[in-house]
Amino acid sequence: MAQQSIPKNYESTQVEELWYSRWCAADCFKADPERVTAARPAYSIVIPPPNVTGVLHMGHVLNNTIQDILCRRARLEGKEVLWLPGTDHAGIATQVMVEKQLKKAEGKTRHDLGREAFLERVWQWKKEKGGIIINQLKKLGCSCDWSRERFTMDEAYTRCIQKIFVDLYKKGYIYRGKRMVNWCPASLTALSDEEVIMEPHKGFLYYFKIEIAEERGTFLTIATTRPETIPGDSAIAVNPKDPRYQKYIGKHALRPLPFENQEPIPIVGDESVEFEFGTGVLKVTPAHDKTDFEIGRRHHLKVTDIMNPDGTMNALAGKDLAGMDRFKARTRSVEMLKELGLLVKEEPYENKVGISERAKVPIEPRLSEQWFLRYPSVAEARACVADGVMKFHPERWSKTYEHWMGGLQDWCISRQLWWGHRIPVWYNKQDASKIYCDVTPPADAENWEQDPDVLDTWFSSWLWPFATMGWDMDLPEEKMPELLKKFYPTTDLVTGPDIIFFWVARMIMAGYEWRGEMPFKNVYFTGIVRDKLGRKMSKTLGNSPDPLNLIAQYGADALRFGTMRSAPLGQDVLFDEKNVELGRNFCNKLWNASRFRQMSGEMSDNSSLDAIVARIDPALCDADDHAILDGIVRLTRDCSIHFANYEFNAYTQALYSFFWNDFCDWYVEVAKTRLADEKLRGNVLAIQDLCLRQFLLALAPLTPFIAEELYHLLGYIAEGQFLQDQQLATAEEILGLLEKRGLKIDGNAVAEISQIRDFVTQTRALKSHNNAGTRRDCLFVLAVKDVSAKEIVERNLAKLKSLVGAQSIEFVPAGTETSGASTLTPLGVISLDMTGLVDKEAETKRLTKELEKLDKAIAAGTAKVNNPAFAAKAPPHILEGAKKQLAETQAKRDEIVKLLGNLSK
RNA sequence: GGGGGUAUAGCUCAGUUGGUUAGAGCGUUUGCAUGACACGCAAAAGGUCGCAGAUUCGACUUCUGCUACUCCCACCA
Predict the structure, then answer these.
(1) CA of A861 to C1' of B20 (A)
(2) Cα torsion through A67, A73, A74, A75, rounded to 10
(3) How many CB atoms lie within 10 A of CB A653?
(4) What is the ipTM of this complex?
(5) What is d(CA A242, CA A245) in angstroms, rounded to the nearest whole number?
(6) Is the terminal CB of chain A with fewer CB neighbours within 10 Å at N or C?
(7) Which residue, A537, A521, A741, is CA-closest to A629?
(8) Which nucleotide is nearest to A805 (CA to C1')?
(9) Cα–Cα distances in Å, from A217 out to A241, A245, A263, A547?
(10) Is A838 helix (H, G, I), strand (E, B) or coil?
(11) In this structure, are strands A174-184 and A219-224 parallel, antiparallel, or unpaired?
């Protein structure tokens, strides 16, 4: 097998581009429903469709890396994988964006163009610039089936939306009504409750007097944050149980504004009025406040809308305020109250104000005619999570879900926008009460007018899991597309908890309503990516790093690795570029270790796990071989456990520490001695190959590019094949293969290595303390602890000498007094003959400190063992362990005391 | 007002069903060209596990209360 040698440096950009194009050219990510069988089960994820206007940010990196890891791992486990990608038309965001461009380039508004021409512009924009994010996801390495990319305004998808609208309308879930909605004065559309963010706002609470019409000279004082709405007041409300005000119920108050129309308005009693708030007197503005609207309904009050859709005051607000912006009108009306001598006081006050999620302006509660949806399949959707049939990870989000599902409010689904799915409803021109609702326009189109509104973007998103798979409401089940039959319901959904109401809950309801089952089996909620100070990423703060820059600088694998290592399940992620650096360093380490493997000797037959195992000779394996094989088996097992628990950070961490600490820092180092030995080299290399091969497979989902590159360069796979088609052996399978070869991992050997590692560390430390850290010619004397310790050292003498930089290690019996600096190791007291070089003061300090530590441990241990309750109640193995520990600690202490004595000589 | 979450080394976080002397990465200090890697190697310093109780032979771990920070939900104008 001709091997290409591994270059000195890893060029991530080059490697990533090369492999991504190869994967695509070979249709690696294409899901084929025909391939799904009992032996090859389906695994599917639908991507949370990013906005078509979106650009990749760290949140996407986190979210999509997780999805990619899940998909790639599933492929290695022999599953047929569908990761279905696409984008969302994002109604408001997209429309606003194109409108802005239009304004900038041509100074025109959408109305100047008209609906059709404007929509053409949006489509044109979408075609040219939309979906940039798709290419960015490719840079990240996402293994989506790009041949099935969907858009929420695809023809077929749009058809689905129309059909389910009609379906829900006919079932009576959708209705039209005049109701209080959240109105965005900037985007000029209604919004759902979920699109309104409550934010604290520092303002004033204004107290003003209002005169009782029937008792001139008597005033009530009202506290309000919104004096500009006084002209819209149609009543004054007090709590009927409030002794201060009961007597006024039924009388009237003189509304001070508008000045030219100071009408008497009724004083009503309503239980919703709080005694304690303000003065206990409430002004009722049914047209501009949700609570007030309800009070108005209960008392049949007049509804006076004093504002225009854009948030300016209209003529009903009076001539002083008309035309004014609502916030200017607030200031002006306060001035007017002052002029009238009615303003009592104004005090600073902080309350929560609803802000439009998109336009970032305060929303205005407004009465308007809109389409509403009463949620379908609520009970089923609620039960599946409550019963644990559908699993949330972390589980606690199910509480949030349950809470929201328990308090469902009807969903305002109509939007006064142009970009989106047009509502499939027509109104009769002659008879407005006649409504036509269907997927196809009425036959006598000239007599009808279609509703100008479009549907909320989320009204299309909630069908995403099945509408993307070619679902058609009118097809009988057996005629449904194979894709849907094989890959639906999906396996996992990976998304942020911030859209649990917007999207997740609604998808579950849609799933039950039209497919009769849940749309996914598991939902993994990621954390939110924040900066290293814990703040949310935002454009204005400028704390949002550009993932593409990071990829260019460090590589996509490094970004993925670094992000996943710091992303614990259910916890927010604090982004720090240092993490990406760590990922880059890891890739570099991996690269070099592989390079070293290649430089160390012949590659031999690496074509399969069996072939590699066949190269291992059990008779030539030493304790280190056993320990590292034990390590790779454990790693394999741990990885699958972490996967099953969606603990990607633990999985990443496990890979990191095995590779760096166990494989590179120890195994490769100790194996260097044996590499020089002709007879042993082949065996050592075979074991390295086994480890590297298995490691790369386990790692590949996380860092697919470098894993694939090295897998090929090391000859673990034939030209033209791909890592993803390899079989990932389980821990048991590896053990089975080794046993068949006559190799049973020896637990004693594993323990022996742990002792040796300790010994080496202690000995190196001894050298370091005595300024001999770099010397390779030290003369050591080891007072061996016992026979077995002696055997261990003898067995491993060559590599030990090399590891600690010894010219010789002389054995003396335990207890022998030695000269020079000494330290305690698990194998005995080792002494370094460096008389004259020893820093006695520093050594004394160090040993004294060690002694103090041991004394503490002995005190605690003695107290514990002598405690009769402990002896009586603790399980035997714990008791034995404690006794043994105490004895060892005491022995250690004795040695240290001796060493200290030697030093003072 | 209701409901989550978090609190462990200077920083970011691990810590499995309670059980020997609480770990990692970064940062810091010291030394180092040792067969791949200075994006590296070796050694080291650094922790009353937020506070107060309770349960237990034994608590970073379980329970109760408290404090701080944080997120979500809610029609106190």
Answers:
(1) 9
(2) 110
(3) 17
(4) 0.93
(5) 6
(6) C
(7) A741
(8) B34
(9) 24, 16, 16, 69
(10) coil
(11) unpaired
pTM attached to this predicted model: 0.91
CA of A397: nucleotide with nearest C1': B4
Q: Strand locations in A598-689, DSSP E? A: none
Nearest nucleotide, C1' to the C-alpha of A870? B57
DSSP string, A304-359: ---B-TTSBB-GGG-TTTTT-BHHHHHHHHHHHHHHTT-EEEEEEEEEEEEEETTT
Which pair of structure tokens corresponds to residue A123?
A: 């489509």
Q: Which amino acid is at A833?
A: D
d(CA A119, CA A121): 5
Q: How many whole angstroms separate alpha carbon A238 and alpha carbon A771?
A: 86
| Closest C1' nucleotide to A589's CA | B37
The pLDDT score that the predictor gives to residue A541 is 65
Residue A647: alpha-carbon gap to chain centroid: 12
Average pLDDT over residues A21-48: 96
- Protein-covered nucleotides on strand B (Cβ within 7 A): 3-6, 11-15, 19-21, 24-27, 30-37, 39-45, 56-58, 70-77
For strands A86-87 and A150-151, give the pairing.
parallel
Q: Does residue A469 register a pLDDT over 90?
A: yes
Residue A510 CB neighbours (<10 A):
24
User: Closest nucleotide (CA of A283 to C1')?
Assistant: B77
d(CA A421, CA A371): 13
CA A203 – CA A532 distance, rounded (Å): 32
Residue nearest to nucleotide B19 (CA to C1'): A878
DSSP 8-state symbol, A772:
-
Q: Which residue is nearest to nucleotide B40 (CA to C1')?
A: A589
Contact in structure between A76 and A37 (CB atoms under 8 Å): no
Q: For position A1, what pLDDT does the model report? A: 43
d(CA A23, CA A692): 22
Mean pLDDT of chain A: 89
Please give the Cα distance from A186 to A359 (Å, whole number).
6
Contact A177, A372 (CB under 8 A): yes
Question: What is the separation of C-alpha A84 from the centre of its chain, rounded to a whole number of angstroms?
Answer: 19
Query: CA–CA separation, A764 vs A754, rounded Å?
Result: 16
Under 8 Å CB-to-CB from A877, ≥6 apart: which residues? Answer: none
- Asked whether residue A904 carries a pLDDT value surpassing 50, the answer given is yes
- Asked whether the predicted pLDDT for residue A357 surpasses 50, the reply is yes
Q: Return the amino acid letter for A360.
A: K
CA of A855 to C1' of B29 (A): 27
Q: Which residues pair with A284 in a beta bridge?
A: A235
Using CA of residue A387, residue A391, residue A395, residue A397, what is the dihedral sign?
negative
Stated as kind and residue range, the H or E segment containing A99 is: helix A91-106
Helix H or strand E segment including A216? none
Q: CA–C1' distance A538–B73 (Å)?
A: 23
Rounded to 5 degrees, φ, ψ at A252 are -130, 155
Measured distance CA(A727)–CA(A737) in Å, rounded: 14
Per DSSP, A537 falls in state P
